[in-house]
Amino acid sequence: MIRLCGSCNSRFQKDFPQGPCHICGGVLQSLPTLLAHAEKAMKPEWETFSLSSHIPRQVLSKEEEAWDYSEGESLKSWLNAQISHHIESSTGKRYSPLSSDGRITVDFSTLEADGKNEPLFLFGCYNKLVRGISQSKWVCLKCGGAGCSHCAGKGKMYEESVEEIIGDAAGSLTGGKYTFHASGREDIDVLNFAGRPFVLEVKGPLKIRPDLALLQEKINSQGKVEVSSLKLVPPGSVTLVSDSHFPKTYRAWIDSDQPLTEEDAQKISKFSFSLNQRTPERVAHRRADKIRRRHAQITASKLEQSQLVIDVRADAGTYIKELIHGDNGRTEPSISSFLSKPCTCSRLDVIGMDDDFLSLVLG
User: Fold this and answer.
1) In 3D, which of 291, 295, 292, 307 has the Cα closest to residue 344?
2) Which of 100, 221, 263, 283 is most enclosed, with most CB atoms within 10 A?
3) Which is the catalytic residue, given 187, 189, 257, 264?
4) Residue 158, Cα to own-chain centre: how many angstroms?
5) Across the chain, how many H-helices and E-strands are there?
6) Measured between alpha carbons, how far is 22 from 340 in angstroms, rounded to an integer?
7) Domains along the chain with CATH numbers
8) pLDDT tens per residue across span 262-294
9) Mapping DSSP to helix (H, G, I), strand (E, B) and coil, where does residue 192 land?
10) What are the DSSP calls for 216-245, one per residue?
11) Annotated catalytic, 187?
């Protein structure tokens, strides 16, 4: 016959005979000790906290045996409720399981508890002001970052990246390790003046409320990347930003080995088509070979000396360089085919991004 202690019995609809507890083995007689340890694990700078309870598998198995006789609340759920209520009552801090300043982990077997800062999630928008900087750190594939002759001992293919410029500055203020999440990316030779949304995830921070104005100054003073709208956001913002895709406006400088004229500038201003874009040759080794339907429209055009300068608004995922040169017929129509002249893109900037909904959602 299953016997339970008073604490475990209170979780079930049916009353079991009281006695040596089949589930907790008497551990819950020391609940006040566990509550005191959990409260002590709270850090004074936390305003909110969350909980994790480690309960041995054999205890959970015995609980399932009791469920064969009666429905009841799980030990984990009940224990977390006891701990959170105690800490809220004794400290005035708020239990926030989905987004918190820190997490308390309790061990049911040892009655010990430990508190650690939760990751920080820092939202912002960046402009890239210098060409030749990749968005993310490009680890050398030959050595995996250890350093070799292929990467000149650096462990990476480029000196710096947007990720490192922002992340290193944030790490210096928080003491944590970072991961960079952005809404799309621009090529290494493309500037971005549109403000691309990103979330920097900082794990294991020593400081949970960094000076965001100081962080912005540390990043922007380098003159390579400019950030704005910095704010701390919930963990779910990573998926929101990473999965977001927006139409963008680009400014492109077009060359041709045939003379470009004012008539070409006038003609190209009427370009507004649905494109068939097959995966470009330059990325075919790492992207699925398929045809993508995209729309692109020229919103401004002019002749500057021997170049056409155009503004083009295009769906997310449009390959703009291929839109211009045609990629050997893999993009149709292209500006080259429309003008009946071979065209190339000598310079490309991102100048606009329709991301208003992110500002609305993230405030």
Assistant:
1) 307
2) 100
3) 187
4) 22
5) 11, 14
6) 84
7) 6-116 (no CATH), 120-244 (3.30.70.2510), 248-353 (3.30.70.3190)
8) 999 999 999 999 999 999 998 888 888 999 999
9) strand
10) HHHHHTTSSEEEEEEEE--TTHHHHHHT--
11) yes
